[in-house]
Amino acid sequence: MVAVKTGERYIPVMTYVAEGSRDREIGLRELETLVGSSLDSCPRIDKAIALPPDYTRLHSMAGPVTDALYRALGDRLAAVMPALGTHSPMTATEIASMYPGTPAGLFRAHDWRRDLVELGRVSASFVSEVSEGAVNYDWPAQTNRLLAQGGFDRIISIGQVVPHEVVGMANHAKNIFVGAGGKEGIDKSHFLGAAYGMERMMGRTDTPVRKVFDKAMEFAPGRLPPVLWMLTVVGRKDDGSLALRGFFSGDDRECFEKASALAREVNLEMLDEGIRKAVVWLDPGEYKSTWLGNKAIYRTRMAMADGGELLILAPGLIHFGEDPGIDALIRRFGYRPSAQIRRLAASEPDLAASLSAAAHLIHGSSEGRFTVRYAPGPGLSRKEIESVGFEWADPGETMKRYDPAALRQGFNTMPDGERIFFVPNPALGLWSLRSRFE
Fold first, then answer.
1. Using CA atoms, how far apart are residues 18 and 15, in angstroms rounded to an integer?
2. Segment 171-214, tens digit of pLDDT
3. Concatenated DSSP letters for 1-47?
4. Prediction pTM value
5. In the beta sheet, which residues pair with residue 224?
6. Are the C-beta atoms of residues 16 and 249 closer than 8 Å to each other?
7. What are phi and psi of 190, to 5 degrees?
8. Which domains does the chain have, with CATH numbers?
9. For residues 294 and 427, what is the distance between their CA atoms, to the nearest angstrom?
10. pLDDT grade, residue 428 (50/70/90)?
11. DSSP-assigned beta bridge partners for residue 294
C-alpha cells in the first residue's frame, strides 16, 4: 500500500480506479481519462518503467493504455519492458503496431535466462501446503534486474485479467514474476499449476500458484519500486468485435480482485451441454507456435464432450516452442497424459531441467478424453504434427469448409447439418460445462 497526499495528510489507498461492467464499453477517450485519474491518485512519478504485455496479448488494450501513459508522463516514462516470459522478443514491426504512440527507443527486451535478480524464496513448506502436496519445492521470487536496479521510482504493470491455465486468472503479480521472471521461477510455477490441475484453477482468483505469487510480493518492499497496477477486462460484442469492458488500477491486490470478478462475468461462458466438435481459429499474426496456440485446448477442454473433436485452424504455425530449447523438448517428448509426463520429468534430466516445458506438455494433452486435430498451414508438416501426439487436418480443405469469416462465436449449424462450436480467439475466454466448473 502507498499513500496519497491530501493537503498535509497522507491517506492510504488501494484501488484508484474501478470502472466497468459486463455490458460497459469504455472508449479510447474515456480510457485516456481513466489512465490520467490513476496517475493523479498515485504519488508523483519522476522515473517509471512500464511493464505491458507482448504481441501475444495484442487484444488486451494494453497498447492504448501504454500510449496514454506516455502522453501523460512524457520523459518521466523512462523505459518500457514487454512482459515476455519465455516468448520471443517483440520485433520492431510488432512494437510499432501494438504501441504506435510510444517511442520505440524506450523498449527493452526481457531475457528470462540471464537478466535476473532474486528477491527471496518462498519456502517449500508453504508451496507444499497451498498445493495440497502436489509438489514439494521452494520457489524463487525472480524478476528482471532492471526493475530492481534501474533507479525507477515506480513500476507500472499493465495487462489484461482473463482466465489463465497456469495461475487461474492472468496478471497482477504474475507480470512481475513470470512476465519479467526467470527460468527457475517460471518452470516451477508452471509445473505447480499442472501438478495441482489446470481444470481446478482456470477462471478462479485464488489458486495455489496465485498464493505463491502473493507470498513473493512480500519480498518486494525495499527491493523493488512500488507497483502501480493498470488492469483491463476485454470482451466481445454481439457482432464479434472487441470491447473494453473494464479498467482497474491501484497499488494493491484489491484492483485485481475487482478485475477478476468482472472477467468471470465477461470471459467465462458456461454451457449446459458438452461440445461434440469445436473449431478454434488462431490468427496467423498472433499464433505461430503450439506453445501459444494450445490455448485452443486449455480454454475449451472443460467444455469438450468425452469422445469429441477439437479442430484448430492454425495457418501461422511455424514451430512448437517459442524458445529453441523448449521446441526441441516438445518434439522429443510430445503432448502426453499427465501421469506419463510426470514420470518422464522424474526420470529424464532434460525434462526435469525444464519444468515449464513439462507443464506445457501436460496442458496440451486431452488426457485421452477428446481428439485434438491441427490444420497448420505450410509451416509445420503432417509428420511433425503427428509426431507430438496431435491429429492432422488438411489445411486447404479445412479452411474451405470452416471459413472463420463466415462463422459466429458459439454454436453454428453447417449447410450439411453438422453442428460445431466456433471460437474466434481462445485467449479471450474460457468455456466450461457448468457441472465441471461448479
1. 7
2. 999 999 999 999 999 999 999 999 999 999 999 999 999 999 99
3. -EEEEETTEEEEESEEEEEE-TT----HHHHHHHHHHHHHHSPP-SS
4. 0.89
5. 221
6. yes
7. -65, -40
8. 2-268 (3.40.50.11440), 272-437 (3.90.226.30)
9. 10
10. confident
11. none
